[in-house]
Amino acid sequence: MKRKGSLLACSLLVLLTVHAATPGTYAAGTAPAAATTKTPAAAMTDIPGVIARVSPSVVAIVGKPELRGSARENRFNLAHGTGIVVKADGWILTNAHVVKEMDNLTVITVDGKQYAGTVTNMDEESDLALVKIAATGLTPAKFATNYSIKVGETVVAIGTPISVSLRNSASAGIISGVNRSVSSTYRLIQTDASINPGNSGGPLVNLRGEVVGVNSLKFVSVGIDNLSFAIPADTAQYVMNHFFTYGKVNRPYWGAELEESWAAVVGLPTKEPLRITRVEPGSPAEQAGFRAGDVIYSVNQASCTTLVEFNELLKRYLPGQTVEVVVQSGGDLIKRKVTFGKQP
Predict the structure, then answer these.
(1) Catalytic residue at 111?
(2) How many other β-carbons are positioned within 10 Å of the β-carbon of residue 176?
(3) Catalytic residue among 80, 97, 216, 283
């Protein structure tokens, strides 16, 4: 369920999620990290140590963009981004927009070794993809689990900005905000760590060396500095688990379009519930009795007041599972059960 509506002050902001680092475009992203153990105080300021530990898990991804004519034949006309090693036998996580229209993928490890890459899985809704290379003995990154990320926490972004020759460049900053939604399906992390073209798909790590996010996008405009966003680690792990289990993200489908309140659209705290604006004919929602105008108060006793919260809630379920929805319909507060189907 994607958020509807335009960005606030969109005349002043340009949001770019690019397929690669090409002249005049800007993209970025970070990945969430897992923190389950206590770390000595000295290690909490050891940024050089963090970079040294994480860099072997960061790769550059290079390829030819989908161009035609003389532009395609130009050997220097390359697209590039960043990836994160997630399995030692050659599995790489990156942004879907990095590899979507990229041919002849080459993955370059921190020691300069080059491998031909194949995109095996792609999910544009979450902007994540998997790339496979014929390599063994790689160093997988450690993703944060059960980790409560905090505003003001120091983080480090590692990636391939501007040029492949600058691969494994690092920048440090802080977590500027959590639970952000920027016309996105799921929650994002905001950071002021310097992100540049080519950083997309690279890790955002905490000072324990754990990936907390995957760099994905940024705002670009005159007068705007260091306003970048990353896909949280829990979303990255959710998508990867589905990739390896089902070959795709096996999202539950119920077939009703939702609308959030004005306060939710502009990011204000609100308790106003979501409203159904349309029900697909023949969908699970229609079969369960839902109709346009119904107001959703909870799903299996969990309340949600924004589209992003609703989408986050759906990550708990699979097609075929049944949930109980508290809904106000025709002036009555009732409970309806709906069994999710598979996405068309």
Answers:
(1) no
(2) 18
(3) 97
* Catalytic option among 55, 57, 126, 127: 127
CB count within 10 Å of CB 328 equals: 15
Which one is catalytic: 169, 176, 181, 200? 200
148 is catalytic: no
d(C-alpha 113, C-alpha 254), whole Å: 46
The pLDDT profile of the chain, 344 residues, written as one tens digit per residue, is 544 333 322 222 333 333 333 333 333 333 333 444 444 444 557 899 999 999 999 999 999 776 555 555 556 667 899 999 999 999 999 999 999 988 899 999 999 999 999 999 999 999 999 999 999 999 999 999 877 889 999 999 999 998 888 889 999 999 999 988 887 899 999 999 988 889 999 999 999 999 999 999 876 656 667 779 999 999 999 999 999 999 999 999 999 999 999 999 888 889 999 999 999 999 999 999 999 999 999 999 999 999 999 999 999 999 999 999 999 998 899 999 999 999 88
Has 200 been annotated as catalytic? yes
What's the one-letter identity of residue 334? Answer: I
The structure's pTM equals 0.84
Query: CB within 8 A of 316, min separation 6: which ones?
Result: none
Domains of the chain: 10-250 (2.40.10.120), 252-342 (2.30.42.10)
